Amino acid sequence: MAVDPALTHPRIAYYSFRHLYPTIGVFSIRSVFENRPHEPTKVVAYEGRRHRLIIGSCNGLLCLHDNERAMLWNPCTGFTSQPLEIGRIFNLCGFGYDHVNDKYKLFLIEEKKSGGSVTRIFTFGPKCTWRTIQDFPYRLHDPNNKAILLAPVGLFVSGTGTLNWLLCSSRTSFVAVLSLDLVKETYSQISLPSRDSDDALRVFPQLATLRGCLAVCYETKKTHWTLWIMKEYGVPQSWTKLAIIPHHPLLVNPRSSYALEPMYMLKNDVLLVLSPRGKFVLCNLNDGTIDFPNIDSSVDGIPQLPPLSHGAGGWIFHIYHESLVSPSHFGLPTCSSQIRLFKPTL
What we know:
The chain has one helix at 29-34, and strands at 10-16, 23-28, 41-42, 44-47, 53-58, 61-65, 69-73, 80-81, 84-85, 90-98, 103-111, 117-123, 129-132, 148-149, 155-157, 162-168, 175-181, 186-191, 206-210, 213-220, 224-230, 239-246, 261-265, 270-274, 280-284, 290-291, 295-296, 315-321, 334-335, 340-341. It is an all-beta fold. The radius of gyration is 20 Å and the shape is globular. The chain has one helix and 30 strands.
């Protein structure tokens, strides 16, 4: 799987951030690419006992949180770890894998009731432990911040053991990646590809992973999006321009302040993106054509939101690759009753 991710079955898991439904929808990325328009990609829904956020995924495991407890879930096998009480209020988080020490780690910035915050890492294992680490180098509520953190959840890049956040300033052309090394538990900053001086950050970039590499998508000159990929993690000189995607009337959303979001890319240079209009789109980078996949989300258990194929947002999406990794391998008690297939009422 590490050598050739195409051997696995990539899937997208999603949940609603607007409505507190206890369901998580899952669908196949391969079906999105391969199905004909009259063959919709079917969403499979799973139901838990309460609404849960997806903090992140790696090696087929999703890390879920419900404001009080965290647990690991493998949708492929159905097994979950026993929920672990963490009961902390946090505004910044991330989940990833420390490949050197074979540990799964949850990163949180805990907001204290008395004010201030503390930065912690939670290690899953037979003896789950909290450790306080060096303070996050960016103060969340500091009015003197020269840049803003675009997303509260760090993006895990497989093989590097890092969580990554995008730092931007709408006043200047400053953009950078703030990285946390889960092995050393230290921070670093990575510069991004240079932008044209006349391209103000009216539309914020999107950070992603493509083909196992860190990627970033800019809006350029209000006419197209430029997609870059970092071929060697942590080496700014390895940023390579991957594609230029022209603006299309069906993709552009004048009210959105974010660029096109890259999701997944096949070897034939067809790219799955989430457009600023909230729709999934297949972009052929060879001939410039676009296609809107048919995704049937009628049984995802989230009736107050429009179908995925209609767009408009309201969801958070996470990509994962199916695996047989079990939480019990790390000494965590497991069970199969926490999350089950959702059965809609007729």
